[in-house]
Each structure stands twice: as structure tokens, then as C-alpha cells.
Write a structure and sequence with these properties.
This is PilZ domain-containing protein. The protein is of the alpha+beta class. It contains 27 helices and 31 strands. The longest helix has 19 residues.
């Protein structure tokens, strides 16, 4: 629900009945005199959004002044007070049914606590200024802000409970207060604004409202102020019991009291609800991110890459290097580079990494260089970029270095251990076995492919001379010193149909480019196999496999020439991990059905692959570390009608520049994305979201923001690179930015989400459903609605570097450059 209606209520109610009128454009023109066509278009889109049918449930309990009662409408039970019920019926008549506009209008009643709080803030700020139509419409671009792995962990259940309290401070002064929620060792209270409190202050609380029915200690309970918040006419205090005032009998009383009344007064689900929402978005992020996380050990002051974490989106980056002889990926992380990256960690201090490969005499020669290395030698810098960009294997990567710790792998639930054995198991620390594998992890490097064909043409235009090619040898990968292997680890994701693998040996035969190779299966699953080959091969993308021994077991299925996609192979290229290619078609479908039946009938006889299970557990632990150290903003978009709207944005640390624009003049807990979603840039961006496939590679967009030095926090101009007709216009844009202030460039990586996987927070979702089933349904609906994930990567250094060199118009460029190897 939006914080404010983007159209004035009077105008909205006047226009809604005209929505289906063929003269709507004329009605809008009369209602919004002086407005532009784009502003009227946005108003029309807003009216259509408000008229969209709503499937949500309204529950105003605890949100309004007044008693709420159940009200049945269209097989859904809403909880409304008398004012809200009257407005609900009025809006139903206006809209002709339960729509998004009805839902939002009911939440805007004057007795709503949130509305009263906003009115109080507006009154303190003075009389509101007039807003034009564009400003009103921009409010719809507010997105909720979240932080990954930043949810509160509760040791105990908190129960919503309101009673009268008497509080004594350190000066022995007494004042009255009201409780909000209660736990065995904590308390949240509300009092007036006549006093000021500081964290650490000691208070004594007397439960006067309970003394009428229970015999309590007359000396009260000692508490310490943990957090204060001032809202409207009240001060809200979060308190913890002091360690010198613990009383086992009082603990037992509170525990029994909460357990006996929590179904009547309801437990406080706020932090659990926020945690489930964040975990759902974390799960989307980790499965679609295109960055390759590489975890670095720091043992005896020696840095060495240890693990890398794979998902379906970053496989192509990994396979590009795995196909190279000896798996060249380890050469990118040579000790000298790692030490430089370690010296300046952070999202904004990212480095750039360039690489290419050339072939000579049947051999591959690989080269790589970081921008921080090339800057020290301008001639090498120009030669490397010009020559490398002419090779088909040219790649450009951003490198982001973050400090991490193995302790970040511990991700307990937000539920207390007292709820049972299942929750205690979830809250256990990371196992000693996994911690021993990760005990030396100190750094995480995110490697992201930002190769761009238009940028390549600029690099290719740089002057190049044969006499300078020997300079490249300093950046060559050594051929006689194989790099240290990096263990590739995957994590389990139910929606991607990860399957248990079973140990089973059987003869098979591969066919690659007309050549047959004998092999033996090491493990199998319904849609995948691992094969050990008798001889080494260069793995193609797709190959065929025939299962002679399995074919002897069945005449029902044809198990010859089954197409498989190569997903992974070892350094010797003799062990392949394969996945069925197009399993819903032809012989692939027959193979999937055969292996499904085979495993279903023999699961008790077959042993699961222990290495696979260990790898999944390690992958889960590394995934938690990666999420904790997320370096880039991540925007989640939902579909509304024919367009998309911003729902939530996950923010990284404060060192990233992009969130500064989002948070400028935005309400607390929200980000204003109007600069990205309005005007020509916004229309272009929304158009690019259409047609995305859940299985396709990420779609890359390049965003430019011109920042005015005279107006910090505000953008002067926002546009996408593809909106410019040519690179010359981009060059002039940079010149304009340098005159006005600065230019910031971002790569937006767009991917479509799959279905949500709730296995990671299933216990918390069941807990919410137990006490507020309507909230659990709303939460699941919200996660299902998330359709697009947009990672926002700062590439300002690469763009400025791209235009830093100017190709000489009359440069004598040779068309026959010799290989430097």
C-alpha cells in the first residue's frame, strides 16, 4: 500500500466513474489544465491501478482508534471499525467492486494511527506548499527499503499486551506509562513527552494493571532503556530486564502468563514478518545474481582463492574460464592483485579487470590486467586495451572486495528456542565441520562481467603499434605454473528442482562431434548424471549419451543418444556433470521418466552422494556470507496491469552512491525512485522489463546520472545509454557533466524471478500463519508478485575510462598486428 494517494481524493473520485468513458482524455484535459501529455498519461495509469481488482484482506486491528469487528465480503473476512466500514461500503459503490482504490481509501481514514502521525509531522513542518500534478504522481514511485540479514533475532516470544504501569527513574521520580508488548526479559512501553530518556538509563517498573488480579513483588522489576523513539505525542521505550534484578519466580510467572494468553492478545509478529519478507527477497537475489562470488583465504598472511559460489546465472562466467586449459580463473587472483584489492575494500572502491586470449601454434595464451596496474604505465595501458579489444575473447569485469568472516554463515531463525526442538535445531550455530573449512576466510570478491560491444569499438580505435606488443608479456598467464584450484560450490534451491543424487555405477558411451568415448556413471538423479570418462575431451555445450546397461533393463524406454547439457567438469576434463537437455521433449523425456522410476523403486538400496550433500551445506553457508556482504542495491519490481512498479529495494552499505538519490526527501523506510521510473528514461526502463524470460541471461542496461555540484543529492539529468544515438553524444554528455558537476554511470542487470522457495523460512511462515493467517497469506502473495530483480552496479570508473582516450583521427593503425606471444 502506498503511503499517500498519488491523486487528490476529490479528483480521484471525480475521474473514476469516467475511466471507461471514450472521452477520458478530454475529461483529464479539463481536470488538469496546463498539464503535459506525459502527466495526463501517468494520471490515467494511476486511475487504472486504483480500479484494478484487489485480492488482499483488510485488517485494521491495532491500526486505528476504535474497536474492529469482522466483516464478510466475497468469501473474505475483513476487520474494520465503524468509520472504515462506512467508507468501505461507499468506495464499493464508487468503484463497483473491491479494488485497489477501495483498499487504499479505507487505510486513509482520519482515525488511522499512521495517518494521524503523518498529519502531526506535516503540522510541525508548517503549512503544506502547493504541489503540481507531476509531484503528486511521483509519490507512487516510493519503494520500501530493506537490508539483507538485518532482521532482529528474538530469544523469547513477545505478546501484545496493554496495561497501566507505574515507572520510577534513577531520581526516584514516578510517572505513569502504558505497556505495548511484553516478554519474559523485555518490555515496550509508551509514555508522554515530558521526559527525555537515554539508552542505558535504569528504570523500575510496577505492573499496576496486573496487581488487581495477581500477587506481585511490591518492589517492581528493574529494566534498562535499550532504544527510544518519539512519535506524535508519545515517547516509546524498548526495555530489557537488568541482570542484577533477575527473579526466577517472576520469570516463571511471566512465561506462564504469556503462554496462557498469547492466543487471546496475539504475539507480536512484526520482526518475524519483516524477516520472512527479507529472506524471500534474499532468496531471489542469490539465485539470479550475475556476479561470481570468490571467497579468499588469509592464512599466515598469504591470500589465496578458496571457494566460488555458483548459480544458474553466473555459470557462463565460470565456464568461460573453465574451458581454458588448466582452468585459468585462478590466475586472475594472483597475490599482488589480491593485496591491492584488500587494501581498499568497499563497493565504491571497485577495480576493473580486463582479459583476453589469443591462439598461436595451436596453443592458447591468456592475458589479464587490472586498471590499477595499467594506470602506472600509460603505454601498456593503451596497448593492452587496443589489442585486447580486438580479440573475440575480450572481457571486462568489475571487482568488488569485501571483508567477511565465517561467523556470518550463522543464520538462525527469528523465533525463540522455547518454541520447540525444530526451532532449536534451526537456531544452532554453523557446524564445527563447516567452520573448519571456512575458518581462514577473510575476503569476498564479487566478479561481474560488464563487457560491452559499444565500449569495445572505442578501445579498438586506440592507436596501436607492433613495437609495443612485447609490453603485454608482463600481463601473460604463466603456462608452466598451474594456478591453485578454486573449489566450485553450489547451493540448493527448491524451485530450481535440485534433486538428490545417488551413487550408481553403469557403463555408458558419449558421442562428441562424431567420436565415441566410453564412460562410467558415478552418480545419477532424475535429470542429471556425473560421468567419468576413459579419455580426456574438450567438453562441448551439448553432447549425447547412450546407456547400454540401463537399456538392457527396459524395453519401455529408449535410452540411446540422449542429449545432455554440460554443466561442469574437473581440471583434467575427464569427469563431467551433465543435465538433461530439454527434458520435456522426445528421448530426453523418456530418459527422465526412466531414471525417475529407477530411483523411486530402488531408493532404499542406493546411497546418496555424501560429497554432494556436503557441498550443498557448504554452499548454504557461503550464500549467507555473500548476502551479509551484499555490495550493490537490488530493486524488486512487481507487475500491475500492463506496467511494472517498484515494490522493494534492498540497500547495501552507505559507501554506495546510488541510494543517496533514492533516499533524498523520502519518508523513513522508503526510497523515491521517480528519477528512474519517470519521463523518457522511465518509459524506456519499463519497456525493457517486458519479455524477460526466467531462464535467459540477465539483460544489461547502462544508466547515466548527471549530478549538479550545486544541488547535492539531486540528479540533473537521467537517461540510458541506448537512448543516445551514438557514442559521440555520450562523449558530449560526459563533457556536460564535468561542467555541471559529475557523471555517475550504473549497469542495471535485469532478470525475471522464478517461483519463491519458502523452505528457508518455512518455520517462521507457519508461526505467522498460526496467529495471523491473513498476514501469512498476504506475505506469500507479495513474494509471488515479485517478478523482476534489478541489480544496480556502479560502473562509473569503466565509463570514464572508456572515454578517457580519444582515438586519433589520422592514426596509422595496422590491419596486420602480430601476436605478442
Amino acid at each position: 500500500m502506498k503511503a499517500n494517494n498519488p491523486l487528490p481524493v476529490e479528483l480521484q473520485e471525480k475521474l473514476i466513474p469516467q475511466l471507461s468513458s471514450p472521452n477520458l482524455d478530454k475529461v483529464l484535459l479539463d481536470a488538469l489544465p496546463g498539464s503535459s501529455a506525459s502527466e495526463r498519461f501517468l494520471c490515467k495509469m494511476e486511475l487504472r491501478r486504483l480500479a484494478k481488482p484487489c485480492l488482499r484482506t483488510i485488517d485494521l486491528r491495532g491500526s486505528v482508534e476504535g474497536q474492529c469487528y469482522p466483516f464478510q465480503f466475497q468469501e473474505r473476512t475483513h476487520y474494520l471499525d465503524s468509520l472504515a466500514l462506512e467508507e468501505f461500503k461507499r468506495q464499493l459503490t464508487l468503484y463497483g467492486g473491491f479494488t485497489q482504490g477501495v483498499y487504499e481509501a479505507v487505510h486513509q481514514m482520519p482515525n488511522n494511527y499512521r495517518v494521524m502521525q503523518e498529519q502531526a509531522r506535516a503540522a510541525q513542518a508548517g503549512p503544506p506548499q502547493e504541489k503540481d500534478a507531476a509531484r503528486l504522481v511521483s509519490d507512487r514511485y516510493l519503494a520500501q527499503t530493506i537490508l539483507f540479514r538485518n532482521y532482529a533475532l528474538r530469544r523469547e516470544e513477545r505478546m501484545n499486551f496493554v496495561i497501566q504501569l507505574e515507572v520510577r527513574d534513577e531520581k526516584a521520580e514516578h510517572f505513569s506509562a502504558t505497556s505495548i508488548d511484553l516478554s519474559v526479559s523485555g518490555l515496550q512501553i509508551k509514555t508522554g513527552l515530558t521526559r527525555r530518556f537515554t539508552p542505558g538509563q535504569k528504570l523500575t517498573v510496577y505492573f499496576r494493571g496486573l496487581e488487581q488480579d495477581y500477587v506481585l513483588d511490591k518492589s517492581g522489576l528493574g529494566y534498562e532503556v535499550v532504544r527510544t523513539e518519539y512519535k506524535k505525542d508519545n515517547c516509546y521505550l524498548c526495555l530489557n530486564r537488568t541482570s542484577d534484578n533477575l527473579d526466577s519466580s517472576m520469570d516463571q510467572f511471566l512465561q506462564t502468563f504469556i503462554h496462557g494468553n498469547k492466543r487471546r492478545y496475539k504475539v507480536n509478529l512484526e520482526n518475524t514478518f519483516e524477516a520472512v519478507l527479507a529472506k524471500g527477497y534474499e532468496q531471489y537475489f542469490t539465485t539470479v545474481t550475475s556476479s561470481l562470488p570468490v571467497f579468499i583465504d588469509d592464512y599466515e598472511k598469504v591470500l589465496q582463492p578458496r571457494f566460488l559460489l555458483l548459480n544458474d546465472r553466473n555459470q557462463s562466467l565460470y565456464l568461460h574460464w573453465q574451458k581454458a586449459a588448466g582452468n585459468q580463473l585462478g590466475y586472475l587472483f594472483r597475490p599482488g592483485r589480491l593485496n591491492k584489492w584488500r587494501a581498499r575494500p568497499g563497493a565504491h572502491s571497485a577495480d576493473l579487470l580486463y582479459s583476453f586470449c589469443i591462439q598461436r601454434d595451436g596453443r592458447d595464451y591468456w592475458y589479464s590486467a587490472a586498471l590499477s596496474e595499467l594506470k602506472n604505465n600509460p603505454l601498456l595501458h593503451q596497448t593492452f586495451l587496443s589489442y585486447g579489444a580486438r580479440q573475440s575473447s575480450w572481457r571486462v569485469y568489475t571487482v568488488q572486495c569485501q571483508r567477511v568472516s565465517a561467523d556470518q554463515s550463522h543464520a538462525p531463525s527469528t523465533l525463540p528456542d522455547s518454541l520447540g526442538q525444530t526451532i532449536r535445531k534451526l537456531n544452532r550455530p554453523t557446524s564445527a565441520r563447516l567452520m573448519s573449512l571456512m575458518k581462514h576466510l577473510r575476503w569476498l570478491i564479487l566478479l561481474t562481467d560488464v563487457t560491452d560491444e559499444k565500449a569495445r569499438t572505442l578501445y579498438q580505435a586506440l592507436p596501436l603499434s607492433n613495437q609495443h606488443l612485447p609490453l603485454l608479456k608482463a600481463q601473460a598467464h604463466p603456462r608452466n605454473q598451474p594456478p591453485e584450484p578454486i573449489q566450485a560450490v553450489s547451493f540448493q534451491y527448491r524451485s530450481l528442482r535440485q534433486e538428490d543424487r545417488y551413487k550408481l555405477s553403469s557403463r555408458a558411451r558419449l558421442s562428441v562431434a562424431g567420436t565415441s568415448i566410453d564412460a562410467v556413471t558415478e552418480d545419477i538423479s532424475c535429470h542429471g548424471i556425473k560421468l567419468r570418462l576413459d579419455s580426456q575431451i574438450t567438453p562441448p555445450d551439448v553432447l549425447t549419451v547412450s546407456f547400454g546397461e540401463f537399456q538392457e533393463l527396459t524395453t519401455k524406454y529408449r535410452l540411446k543418444d540422449i542429449p545432455y547439457q554440460v554443466r561442469h567438469w574437473n581440471a583434467e576434463k575427464k569427469v563431467l556433470s551433465l543435465q538433461l537437455y530439454r527434458p520435456e521433449q522426445g528421448v530426453s523425456e523418456q530418459a527422465a521418466r526412466f531414471f525417475t522410476e529407477l530411483l523411486d523403486k530402488n531408493k532404499r538400496k542406493l546411497a546418496k552422494d555424501p560429497e554432494h550433500q556436503d557441498s550443498l551445506e557448504l554452499g548454504e553457508a557461503l550464500k549467507r556470507i555473500m548476502v551479509t556482504s551484499a555490495a550493490n542495491p537490488c530493486l524488486f519490481m512487481v507487475r500491475q496491469g500492463a506496467t511494472y512498479v517498484a515494490d522493494t529495494i534492498a540497500l547495501p552499505g552507505p559507501e554506495h552512491r546510488f541510494p543517496a538519490y533514492c533516499l533524498h526527501e523520502s519518508p523513513a523506510g522508503s526510497a523515491n525512485l521517480s528519477m528512474l521510473l519517470t519521463r523518457e528514461a522511465g518509459r524506456y526502463f519499463i519497456e525493457q522489463l517486458k519479455g524477460l524470460s526466467a531462464t535467459a541471461e540477465a539483460r544489461h542496461l547502462e544508466l547515466y546520472i548527471v549530478k549538479d555540484a550545486r544541488q547535492p543529492g539531486k540528479a540533473v539529468n537521467v537517461l540510458f545509454r541506448d537512448q543516445l544515438e551514438n557514442e559521440g553524444l555520450a562523449n558530449r554528455l560526459i563533457s556536460l557533466a564535468q561542467q555541471k558537476g559529475t557523471l555517475e554511470a550504473y549497469r542495471l542487470l535485469l532478470t525475471r524471478t522464478g517461483r519463491p522457495d519458502t523452505s528457508g523460512f518455512e518455520a517462521e511462515l507457519k508461526y505467522i500463519n498460526l496467529y495471523a493467517s491473513h498476514k501469512a497469506r498476504a506475505l506469500e502473495d507479495r513474494l509471488w508478485e515479485a517478478g523482476i530483480v534489478c541489480e544496480i552496479l556502479d560502473i562509473s570508473d569503466e565509463v570514464l575510462q572508456r572515454f578517457d582516450f580519444k582515438a586519433q583521427e589520422n592514426a596509422d593503425l595496422s590491419d596486420n598486428i602480430n601476436n605478442p606471444a
